[in-house]
Amino acid sequence: MSDDVPDWAEQVPPEQLRDAQAVFVQVSASFGGAPRDEIEQALRDAASRRDLDTDGPWIDAAARQIHAIERSSDDHR
Fold first, then answer.
1. Which of 8, 15, 63, 76 is most deeply buried (CB count within 10 A of its CB)?
2. What pLDDT digit, counting tens, does each position of 11-45 carry?
3. Is 70 helix (H, G, I), strand (E, B) or coil?
4. How far is CA 42 from CA 2, 7, 50, in A?
């Protein structure tokens, strides 16, 4: 995939990508600064509500990215 596609998005089937992106945005906005396990659980809960795979590798990859975003924004304060 192209360089502008997040690593986690490469793990999502194309037909589910739009819903997965909505889940990512929702969780990243709501769980900033949360521990990674809480982020993963929030991703699974939101994915479940949209009938997405909740055990796929995209959950872990998305949680890592959300956690990294929050840590890097803390570094710039």
1. 63
2. 999 999 999 999 999 999 988 778 999 999 999 99
3. helix
4. 27, 19, 13
Taking the C-alpha atoms of residue 50 and residue 36, their distance in angstroms, rounded to an integer, is 21
Residues across the chain: 77
Residue type present at position 43 = L
Give the containing element (helix H, strand E) for 36. helix 36-49
**Distance between alpha carbon 19 and the CA centroid of its chain, in Å?**
11
Q: In the prediction, which pLDDT does 75 show? A: 52
Place of tokens 């997965």: 20
B/e letters for 18-39, b = 16+ CB within 10 Å, e = fewer, are ebbeebbeebbeebeebeeeeb
